Amino acid sequence: MRLRPVLTLLPLLCSGCAVLTVADAAVTVVATTVKAGATVVGTAVDVTAAGVKAVVGSDDDDKKEDE
């Protein structure tokens, strides 16, 4: 029974700076993960668009030759 109050008060004994540091590190990891995921998705879209243009062909080149 004595352990419960000690565990309850333990977060209050921790330094506020340590709590902020851990929270900041967690946010940084999440932001980096999201940025890396967005880069992968952007690259996949670029590769897919290039593949579609290669297969279908682009009318842009034909228009430039006509002029």
Written account of the structure:
With 67 residues, this protein is mostly helical. The protein has a domain at 26-53. It contains 3 helices and no strands. The longest helix has 41 residues, at 16-56. It starts with a helix and ends with a helix.
Q: What is the topology?
A:
Elements: H1 3-13, H2 16-56, H3 59-66
- Uncertain residue segments: none
Query: N- to C-terminal separation?
Result: 88 Å
Shape: rod-shaped
Structural class: mainly alpha
Biggest sheet statistics: none
Cα radius of gyration in angstroms? 27 Å
Order of helices and strands: HHH
Number of strands: 0
Work out the strand percent. Answer: under 5%
Provide the helix percentage: over 70%
Question: Helix segment count?
Answer: 3
**What is the average of the pLDDT values?**
78
Short description, anyone?
The protein is mostly helical.
Which characteristics define this entry?
rod-shaped, 3 helices, 0% strand, 67 residues, mainly alpha
